[in-house]
Design a protein that fits this description.
By secondary structure, this protein is mostly helical. The protein has one domain (3-115). Helices cover 71% and strands 0% of the residues. The chain contains six helices and no strands. The chain has helices at 3-13, 19-30, 37-48, 59-68, 73-92, 97-115. The longest helix has 20 residues, at 73-92. The radius of gyration is 14 Å and the shape is globular. It starts with a helix and ends with a helix.
């Protein structure tokens, strides 16, 4: 099971509904005009911020990472940059060294993915 699937399952099991975040992520990926994505990103941030971080992953960052694979390279770069910011925030909020290291793994994965577009 992928980190996305595992985190999604944990969210649902804890009574949270990730569907709005997933829908907004898909809409962002489908946008072809990057200026139009700003309003979508604002809504995405609001909805993503409502969800907890099970398994040391920010679900919003996972959605952006997943959906970036389904769009053009310009939108993908923006999506991955936003995912990095979310994962970085998640990492800095860790309350222990082990937790920070676990969260930093996803951050590094996102940074590596973004570097492939440069």
């Amino acid at each position: 099971m992928s980190a996305f699937e595992h985190t999604r399952k944990r969210l649902i099991d804890s009574g949270h509904d990730p569907k709005e975040v997933e829908l907004l992520g898909s809409e962002i990926a489908d946008s072809v005009n990057t200026p139009n994505t700003e309003g979508l990103f604002e809504a995405f941030e609001i909805e993503s911020d409502k969800l907890p971080w099970p398994q040391d992953h920010d679900f919003g960052a996972l959605v952006l990472q997943l959906e970036a694979k389904n769009t053009n390279s310009e939108v993908a770069k923006i999506m991955l940059s936003k995912a990095i910011k979310r994962a970085h925030w998640c990492t800095t909020c860790a309350t222990s060294g082990g937790e920070a290291l676990a969260r930093a793994v996803h951050l590094k994965e996102l940074e590596n993915e973004l570097s492939r577009y440069s």
